Amino acid sequence: MKANLFIEWLKSREGIYYVLLALLLVVVFPLALDSFRLNMVGKYLTYAFAAMGLVLCWGRSGILSLGQGIFFGLGGYCMAMFLKLEASSPENTAIQSTPGIPDFMDWNQLTALPWFWEPFHSFSFTLIAVLAVPALLAFIIAVAMFKRRVGGVYFAIITQAIAAILTILIIGQQGFTGGVNGITDLRTLMGWDIRTDEAKTLLYFVCVGMLFVCLIVGAWVMRSKLGRILLAMRDQEDRVRFSGYDVASFKIFVFCLAAMFAGVGGAMFTLQVGFMSPSFVGIVPSIEMVILCAVGGRNSLLGAIYGALIVNAAKTFFSESFPELWLYGLGVLFIAVVLAFPDGLAGLYRRYVMPLESKLPAILRRGNAEAQTLPVEEAK
């Protein structure tokens, strides 16, 4: 029974869209791109995790967060701490004053590994921390804000301020975090060299797999009763509250879920790029994530993925050709999206392409009918 339902879903419009995305990411890109460009696409997809979280948080629930870089960075730092400890074995750091600790700690005259680094010797703990640390901070922020009914532009400004504070904190605590340089020189994962082309290709496929897991979870949330409540909460929050629902709890849940998505993206970013720094935590990357969501369509999970691919590809192209103009172009792009097509690429697709798709079967049937009657008319 479930197999039949799955087949029927694959034949539906939504299922076809998922299959096309899977073909693009799993077949087309690996065959068409070399390992360097494929790794760049994998890097672009890591931002799609944060963009999908914003679809749930901003598009579905009306909660605009300008601090998703916080959770992206926390997930990335959790993974980087494990990888750095593995690269800092006593054998690899024998020339340091204190062997067995990361090099930046030795440079800053630390003589022992800080207590909060110790659990990251365990890969299992690291995987849990990638999800739990962003979710815990998101929970603290959400409870403090939503229980007091802080929302709208005030919540956006507060999350932006927290992103700036965390960036300053990471840079200031150089001996514990690597400072402005971040955590670099990451080499192996459980003894497996992640710097080779083969490893980067495999990590790309792992990233795609995790992306589809988050995509399915997000789609389930949007199609469930919870998703309908979130939508009603976005449009008529007071009416939902007067109906007996705890609006603050729903907001807390979706904000924490978006933070977990971003944390997974940050961890995959660290694995594919090989470092993590505070430049991916602050205000600018957080705003870029909002732009990815807006360009793709803030009400579409698939649109968020395509938005991440298109905007980041454009960023790479223009920053290589016109590096001094890219930030201005990014601002113009965001303004154009808000003014010209506020529903993003997904909205344009629904407005102009989907009607043509609906007419296509009738056009094909008409063409087949004309082709079948043509010999009869010629015989007469």
TrEMBL record:
The chain crosses the membrane at residues 15-33, 45-74, 123-146, 153-172, 202-222, 243-269, 301-319, 325-349. It is a multi-pass membrane protein. Keywords: Cell membrane, Membrane, Transmembrane, Transmembrane helix. GO terms for cellular component: plasma membrane. The keyword Signal does not apply. Its main location: membrane. It holds the Pfam family BPD_transp_2. It is found in: Cell inner membrane. The keyword Transmembrane helix applies. GO terms for molecular function: branched-chain amino acid transmembrane transporter activity. PANTHER family: HIGH-AFFINITY BRANCHED-CHAIN AMINO ACID TRANSPORT SYSTEM PERMEASE, SLR1201 PROTEIN. This is Urea ABC transporter permease subunit UrtC.
